[in-house]
Design goal:
This protein is α/β, with parallel strands linked by helices. It contains five helices and four strands. It has one domain (2-146): Collagenase (Catalytic Domain) (3-Layer(aba) Sandwich), CATH 3.40.390.30. Helix content is 52%, strand content 18%. It has a four-stranded mixed β-sheet, sandwiched between helices.
Length: 147
Amino acid sequence: MKLNIIDSGGYRLQYEHSLEMICHLVDEELGTLLGQVNLVFSDDETVHQLNREHRGKDKTTDVLTFTYYSGDKTGKDELLGEVILSIPQTRRQADQEECSFESELYKLCIHGLLHLRGYDHEENEDYRVMKLLEDKIMDRLQMSLKH
């Protein structure tokens, strides 16, 4: 997957290399998927509105994923989907979890990309599988960033 970072909220975050590495690690873990993904940095209001319109939940959330492809065959220029992150919510969660903003951002990006690849956490077993994958990819990312 190729990552397109779109900053719709004026956040000017400087994590492009690490976020691209996350895409690479997800592809390594799940098999390469040709195409592009828009990673959108947004605000609470926009994410709240999208959450209400598309999921019927009248509140902000940390990450929303919209998948535009179906099937295994994709083209390198095809838009596979969008992962939309609320940057203010990401900051709040980092404070609550007592972790760095970067760590929470990476975790949510991984989470969104796993949703894009068909994973969910509606059932306990699905949650367990998705959480194990998130942790494995996050561990690999942290190892890569140390070198």
